[in-house]
Amino acid sequence: MAELNYKHLRYFWMVAKTGSIARASEELHLTPQSISGQLTEFETRLGIDLFFRSGRNLELTDAGRRILGMAEQIFTIGDQIVEELSSNRGRNIIPLRLGIADSVSKSMAYRLIEPALELEDGIRLICHEGLLASLLGNLAVHRLDMIIADRPMPANLNVRGYSHLLGESGLCVFGSPAYVDGLAGDFPGCLDNARFLLPGADAAIRPKLNQWFDAQNLNPHIVGEFDDSALVKAFGSAGAGLFVGPSAIADSICEQYKVVQIGRIDTVIEQVYAITTERKLTNPAIVEISKSAREVIFNNEAKAAL
């Protein structure tokens, strides 16, 4: 069978909706003879009858009813396309394909991305989450525009990319109010034997945090390890144990997860990078993310370090 002629399909659709060739010709601003001839050609190409006469009107055959249902879907989608293009006329919608490493705080990721959503032309955000190695593979084949990660791109990978430091922050220790109330002693001594939720092995701060525990002679009771930073906060919020998060967004973590901050670890620094294929950032959305990170999100942390 030859390819479907969508002009014929539209004529069929209009005749089926109006119930007669005469009314369809008025809607389409064509002569009845033209509609009738096109409809006959459509039936001939399909090899089936789409209508039968019932008095002065045309009624759909069983095959006609099936095709009408599909035609309704096709032209509904067509109308949606026209509406979408009309509403976005004059706006330059920028697709932004982001990879977010599992180990990056989701609260931090949102704070970083949020300014790009306010761009005048607007962006269409496409987010992917996963391990850094997997995300770098997608960056290499240009499926991603940028990766937000807690470390620079490994030097031993044969991937063309550049690491842009967005900022760095110390850590805070958080816990649910009910669990924190039961801790004995002051910080950091209260962490000894306390239930603790560690970031997963892929997190850049994991070995630094373990070294800090050793330096403070602390032996927290590790009850879980989480690759997903949002999941560790959910468990911590429920009282499963204490957890760490960036001090740069401590207030946001407390508000979102209904937890309290019990102390700061300023000697363990968490860094956040934008990894792109560009040596110099040019994508307007990525430039806005970088600017906001330096001037807003990490600005107070930088002042505190002076």
Can you walk through the features of this model?
The chain has 306 residues and is α/β, with parallel strands linked by helices. It has three domains: 6-87, Arc Repressor Mutant, subunit A; 94-167 and 272-305, D-Maltodextrin-Binding Protein, domain 2; 170-269, 3-Layer(aba) Sandwich (D-Maltodextrin-Binding Protein, domain 2). Helix content is 44%, strand content 24%. It contains twelve helices and ten strands. The strands form three sheets. Strands 4-3-5-10-6-9 form a six-stranded mixed sheet, with helices on both faces. A two-stranded antiparallel ribbon has the order 1-2. A two-stranded parallel sheet has the order 7-8. Strand 7, helix 8 (206-215) and strand 8 (221-226) form a beta-alpha-beta unit. Helix 1 packs across helix 3, helix 2 packs across helix 3 and helix 5 crosses helix 11 (284-297). The longest helix is centred in the N-terminal third of the chain and has 26 residues, at 62-87. It is elongated, with a radius of gyration of 30 Å.
Largest sheet: 6 strands, mixed
On the 0-100 scale, what is the average pLDDT?
Answer: 88
- The run of helices and strands is HHHEEHEHEHEEHEHEHEHEHH
Number of helices: 12
> Spatial order of the strands in the main sheet?
4-3-5-10-6-9
Radius of gyration: 30 Å
Low-confidence stretches: 302-306
What structural category arises from helix and sheet content? alpha/beta
